[in-house]
């Protein structure tokens, strides 16, 4: 009997070259597949909703896999976690039908980027947030971010190594807020290009510092030229916090967001 299972995965990406398995550096995918293979007593390959980059974190990465046989739910939440390093965790598990695919069934992805806007960095948050010394105007950043809403050609925000067939994406929502010394940008789109979120942040940082006006975003979109855009922001503060699926799949969610923050 063949079984199909979806998992919700949380991980701290500081020690990994990203999600995808690489020969030259540790990835998130590799220890997860090893742990699942141990529990299933057979080789297991997983498919994820979004391949996060080096140093990027996740609270709601979704994966699926298939194997011959059956296992109780505790095998995934307890057994697999016992075989994983402390910076990767399975937070939910659900049996699905063979029509489900973690990537192709997804209708949206949501990322949150956290900036610590202080005169000196916080040592305890090293690798978990991006520190930025110059004072930022979050209202101007949010104003500029609204130009990203809707369906556009995001070529100006696409990394050169991106293998996507098209640079057209649809941004469903985006918001920049401040809470004390922390500024967060949260964005939801049908899909993202390589480094797209970090390239957006690079642009918004210049707006927040007053070096560019909010309509700089609009002008960049029209240029369709990555060389005209600011440098890519660091990966430290970036988290994959949600993946949207049709309600018919009834997938659970991890309600714990970065640093324990709520929605």
Roughly what percent helix?
10-25%
Helix count from the secondary structure assignment: 5
Mean pLDDT value = 95
Dominant shape: globular
Structural class category:
alpha+beta
Helix-strand string: EHEEHEEEHEEEHHE
The end-to-end span amounts to 40 Å
Largest sheet: 10 strands, mixed
Q: Uncertain segments of ≥5 residues (pLDDT<50)? A: none
Q: Please compute the radius of gyration using only Cα atoms.
A: 19 Å
| Percent in strands | 25-35%
Question: How are the SSEs placed, and which strands pair?
Answer:
Elements: E1 2-11, H1 29-40, E2 47-48, E3 57-68, H2 73-82, E4 88-95, E5 108-116, E6 130-131, H3 138-145, E7 150-153, E8 168-179, E9 182-189, H4 196-208, H5 216-223, E10 238-244
Parallel strand pairs: 3-10, 5-6
Antiparallel strand pairs: 1-3, 1-4, 2-3, 5-9, 5-10, 7-8, 8-9
Helix pairs in contact: 1-2, 3-4
């Amino acid at each position: 009997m063949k079984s199909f299972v979806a998992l919700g995965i949380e991980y701290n990406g500081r020690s990994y070259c990203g999600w995808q398995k690489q020969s030259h550096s540790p990835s998130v995918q590799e220890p997860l597949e090893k742990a699942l293979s141990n529990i299933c007593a057979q080789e297991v390959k997983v498919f994820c909703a979004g391949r996060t980059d080096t140093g990027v974190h996740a609270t709601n990465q979704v994966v699926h896999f298939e194997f011959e046989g059956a296992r109780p739910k505790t095998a995934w939440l307890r057994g697999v976690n016992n075989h994983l390093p402390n910076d990767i965790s399975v937070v939910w598990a659900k049996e699905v039908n063979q029509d489900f695919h973690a990537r192709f069934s997804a209708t949206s992805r949501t990322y949150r980027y956290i900036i610590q806007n202080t005169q000196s960095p916080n040592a305890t948050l090293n690798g978990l947030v991006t520190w930025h010394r110059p004072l930022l105007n979050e209202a101007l950043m949010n104003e500029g971010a609204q130009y990203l809403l809707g369906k556009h050609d995001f070529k100006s925000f696409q990394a050169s190594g991106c293998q996507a067939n098209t640079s057209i994406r649809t941004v469903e929502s985006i918001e920049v807020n401040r809470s004390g010394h922390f500024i967060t940008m949260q964005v939801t789109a049908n899909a993202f290009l390589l480094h797209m979120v970090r390239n957006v942040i690079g642009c918004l940082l210049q707006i927040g510092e007053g070096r560019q006006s909010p309509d700089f975003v609009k002008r960049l979109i029209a240029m369709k030229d990555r060389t005209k855009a600011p440098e890519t922001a660091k990966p430290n503060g970036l988290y994959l916090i949600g993946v949207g699926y049709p309600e018919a799949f009834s997938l659970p969610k991890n309600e714990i967001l970065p640093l324990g923050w709520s929605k």
